[in-house]
Amino acid sequence: MTDIIAIPDALLPRDGRFGSGPSKVSDAQLKALVDSQPGVLGTSHRQAPVKGLVRDVRAMLGELYALPEGYEVILGNGGSTMFWDAAAFSLVRERAQHCAFGEFGSKFAKATDLAPHLGASSIRTAPGGAAVLPEAEDGIDVYAWPHNETSTGVAVPVLRPAGIRDALTVVDATSAAGGIEVDIAQADVYYFAPQKSFASDGGLWLAIVSPAAIARIEEIAASGRWIPESLSLKVALDNSRADQTLNTPAVATLVMMRAQLEWMLAGGGLGFAAGRSARSSGTLYDWAARTEWAEAFVTDPGLRSPVVATIDLHPRVDSAELRRHLRAQGVVDIDPYRKLGRNQVRVGVYPAVDPEDVESLVQCMDYLVERLLT
Predict the structure, then answer these.
(1) What is the per-residue pLDDT across 246-278, written as a single tens digit (0 to 9) for each?
(2) Does the pLDDT at position 43 exceed 80?
(3) pLDDT over threshold 90, residue 374
(4) Which of 201, 249, 298, 351 is deepest in the core (most CB within 10 A)?
């Protein structure tokens, strides 16, 4: 490690993975994969072992979120990007309103705005590090926003806007689900992929859907609108009720997700998991507040994400150089979101990340910067 400043072993975290997605995977999840061989891996997804796996994940998510009556968990092939296209076909009647205050809210807005069968989307925007919330508007039948904007580290409430009548609330929870508490009754669709708080791999989307959302899915499916089978939420709904997906699912992803759900529920549920993330992000925000060369990118404390902490660095502290020294010693994936173009670190602190390792991370950064600036 020529020209690398060696960090004392006593300061290094036990596990140096702090990615904003995919998340750290635990040893228990890897053991679950080993234990699933040969009974689940490499077997038909139409048979009992894999269908039972899907049933477990759906039931455990229902328990984690204490689902209100009539709510269901559905899933399908692909990730959240695939779900945006499915929503444009299967949830929006005519027009959607989007809150875009980062990369991922903007991408969903683009998906519905460009859909040739829909009217122009209403897009409410805010600059990076800030947020905007949905507001009732004539002609809108879907209100969509991210619970947590992974690119900027901004989190906003999940609250049904007043006066929207029978319009649906469709919330991107990819980096929030499992790491931020929520009143699920405020969302008609709360959708996510499993590679963040659920510490699994990609290849699937999951969604918690309300009776109103189910009715909308069935209404649009019966309307005569052409919908590709792979993007039909009615097809996904019917398959989910049979504990399967349209095509072969990412079975290993489901195995790891089930193991993570078992851990979350054994620890006390969503409050336990969210509490770990809140403790870790609090460590980072408190550290930035007392450090002369660092400050929280999100200036409003009420908008700071508990699962993805973005910290700006003073120009004299080169983020790339700091991260180079860390990566050489196994502390990885705290890179800023590329399109923000800021001199910062972005730290994923999903529930699988040990809060003690976050405390070690800030000690490592202090140690390195003290030496880089001398």
Answers:
(1) 999 999 999 999 999 999 999 999 999 999 999
(2) yes
(3) no
(4) 351
The whole-angstrom separation of Cα 183 and Cα 71 is 13
Residue 146 within a domain: yes
Above 80 in pLDDT, residue 1?
Answer: no
Alpha-carbon distance values, 325 to 7, 142, 153, 214, 334 (Å)? 9, 46, 24, 50, 12
Residue 325 lies in a domain: no
CATH number at residue 145: 3.40.640.10
Within-domain flag for 292:
no
Q: How far apart are the first and last CA of the chain?
A: 20
> Is the torsion defined by CA of 41, 29, 207, 73 positive or negative?
positive
Q: Within 13 Å and on the Cβ side, how many CA atoms surround 105?
A: 34
Comparing CA positions, the residue from 370, 362, 330, 363 lying closest to residue 345 is 362
Q: Starting at the edge strand that comes first in sequence, how are the strands of the sheet with 294-296 ordered? A: 294-296, 308-313, 344-348
The mean per-residue pLDDT over the stretch 84-110 comes to 96
Q: Which residue from 296, 290, 332 is spatially nearest to 313, judged by alpha carbons?
A: 296
Total number of domains in the chain:
1
204 occurs within a structural domain:
yes
Report, as an integer, the average pLDDT of 168-193.
98
Query: For residues 284 and 281, what is the distance between their CA atoms, to the nearest angstrom?
Result: 5
DSSP state, residue 120? P
pLDDT above 70: residue 2: no
143 sits in the region (left: phi over 0; alpha: psi -120 to 50; else beta) called beta
Helix or strand holding residue 262 (H, E) = helix 251-267
